[in-house]
Design goal:
Layout (H helix, E strand, L loop, with lengths): L4 H7 L4 E3 L2 E3 L6 E5 L6 E6 L3 H16 L11 H17 L1 H12 L3 H21 L6 E4 L5 E9 L3 E4 L7 H13 L3 E4 L6 H12 L7 E3 L6 H8 L6 E5 L2 H14 L2 E5 L4 E5 L5 H13 L9 E7 L3 H13 L19 H16 L3 E4 L14 E4 L16 E7 L2 H9 L3 E2 L1 E5 L3 H10 L4 E4 L14 E2 L2 E2 L4 H6 L2 E9 L5
Parallel strand pairs: 7-8, 7-10, 8-9, 10-11, 12-13, 12-18, 13-16, 15-16, 18-19
Antiparallel strand pairs: 1-2, 3-4, 5-6, 6-22, 11-21, 14-15, 17-20
Helix pairs in contact: 2-8, 3-5, 3-6, 3-7, 4-5, 4-7, 5-6, 10-11
């Protein structure tokens, strides 16, 4: 379905959502949202202040407690589940609109944006189904004097901070389990891509979410939101997806109030191709793992380790597939690779490639910025990359694939683990025993076996080491927004 862009943008709220109402910033300040494919300003939004952030938390706290026994925390699991189910149906119904918004503000090709709508909506459906199944347990204590009951209670008001690269899915992945658990929220969307979050919040209200349960405070200043809220005794949890340095700062701040935290931080994913891999599957998996979101994903394959016996074949076929991608505006027919998010991102990717080339690497394809307006960079495959090149250590966050070789299975694991990060990893082999050995030896929270995309609403997503803590999605996802309460009952047969 063709979407009229101007009519769609006119439907997207541009204010702050506080207690069910869209309002202007307390000081009247605004910020602009840019289309990275053209440099055009597509919207101007209210920029929240510290005062607005506190007002949003006021609303969240009031909604949680409500009047008497009628607060959000006391709603039945079925009521919360039905709101999530209706939200899933509305997001699905508005798929073309959400996809168009994401392409406009983030740059990804429209077909890929549609894929994110489907993926993001699944969190709403999954947690709608999970809400009434968030079980406690009972048992007789071993000594026989007590019986135990455990129950799950909502952790309380939450601050949710989402990144710019998956504007819908990162919102649904945090908001849906919070709703399922009975929490109220203040959502701080990314400054670069807030429009999808604004429209998603309106969609949730259209689905029947009560006023104050979700409050949205977009702002050009992240600290204007996080600092006052994380200093407030009423906030009980912060969930953040973004860079490791920012996550470290938030963790330090969270320690002051002993806040519950979920942190999904940076990545440096290895992609290992063994000598017995199905080469067609490996190349297809490499394209999926590298080029989803133009490489702008924490799970993106960052370092390619290929057995020396198949390195030339893999590199040649991978480079040919990358060269076939078409750079362009994501709304233009045929585009398969959009722009990077902003000038700073384009400059960063260019510097990493220039450093590798200066140190002796060769570009089999790409290796330069795209032409014309927008923040484009050519899909690039680098070979003969020296170990001291920056691309061997740093997260690229762009369409660049450096290839390294190895000769021994355990050398591959050692190379893969040689990073402070531990989010995603990928292994291609036809040896089932090696698959199990790889999972034992790889220090990553996610392992993809013969698959380049493994994220799923039903699966626990998260990393180890400096890639963060906590899990989003799956049964584990709702637990992140719950506190366990133990009740000890005198056993009726104890004397």
């Amino acid at each position: 379905m063709a979407v009229n862009v101007q009519e769609l943008l006119a439907k997207v709220p541009t204010g702050l959502l506080i207690n069910g109402e869209w309002r202007e910033s307390s000081n009247g300040e605004t910020f602009d949202v840019e289309n990275p494919a053209t440099g055009e300003i597509i919207a101007t939004l209210a920029s929240a202040t510290e005062e607005d952030a506190v007002a949003a938390l006021d609303a969240a706290c009031a909604a949680e407690k409500g009047a008497g026994e009628h607060g959000w925390a006391a709603t039945s699991p079925r009521e919360r589940a039905e709101i999530l189910r209706r939200a899933f149906e509305l997001v699905t119904e508005r798929a073309d609109e959400f996809a168009t918004l994401m392409t406009l503000e983030m740059g990804k090709p429209f077909a890929e944006a549609l894929g994110e709508v489907k993926y993001g909506a699944e969190f709403l459906r999954w947690f709608a189904e999970e809400t009434p199944r968030h079980y406690g347990r009972t048992l007789n204590m071993p000594e026989g004097a007590l019986r135990m009951i455990t129950r799950h209670k909502p952790v309380g008001p939450c601050l949710l901070i989402t990144p710019w690269n998956f504007p819908l899915a990162m919102g649904t992945r945090k908001v849906a389990p919070a709703i399922a658990a009975g929490c109220t929220m203040v959502l701080k969307p990314a400054r670069l891509t807030p429009l999808t979050s604004q429209y998603f919040a309106q969609t949730l209200m259209d689905a029947g979410l009560p006023a104050g349960v979700l409050n949205v405070v977009a702002s050009k200043s992240a600290s204007a939101i996080s600092e006052p809220l994380m200093s407030d005794d009423r906030l009980r949890k912060v969930s953040f997806t973004g860079s490791t340095p920012v996550g470290q700062q938030l963790l330090a701040k969270a320690s002051e109030k002993v806040l519950r935290t979920s942190m999904e931080l940076g990545g440096n994913a290895p992609f290992i191709v063994f000598e017995d891999a199905n080469m067609e599957q490996a190349v297809a998996g490499a394209m999926a793992a590298k080029m989803r979101n133009m490489g702008e994903a924490c799970t993106a394959a960052n370092r390619f380790f290929v057995h020396e016996s198949v390195a030339e074949e893999f590199s040649t076929k991978f480079a040919a597939a990358m060269a076939d991608l078409k750079l362009g505006n994501g709304l233009d027919e045929g585009t398969t690779c959009g722009p990077l998010i902003e000038q700073k991102a384009q400059d960063s990717v260019a510097e990493l490639v220039e450093d590798a080339l200066a140190k002796g690497a060769r570009a089999l394809t790409g290796g330069a910025r795209g032409e014309g307006e927008g923040y484009f960079y050519q899909p690039t495959v680098l070979v003969d990359v020296p170990a001291d090149a920056r691309v061997a250590r740093e997260e690229i966050f762009g369409p660049v694939a450096p290839i390294f070789t190895f000769s021994d299975e355990y050398e591959a694991y050692e190379l893969a683990n040689d990073t402070e990060y531990g989010l995603a990893s990928y292994v291609f082999t036809e040896n089932i025993d090696r698959l199990y050995r790889a999972s034992d030896h790889l220090d990553f929270g996610l392992v993809g076996f013969n698959a380049g995309v493994i994220s799923n609403a039903a699966a626990p997503f998260g990393g180890i080491k400096q890639s963060g803590m906590g899990r989003e999605g799956g049964a584990e996802g709702i637990a992140e927004y719950s506190s366990v309460q133990y009740i000890g009952l005198r056993d009726p047969y104890a004397y």
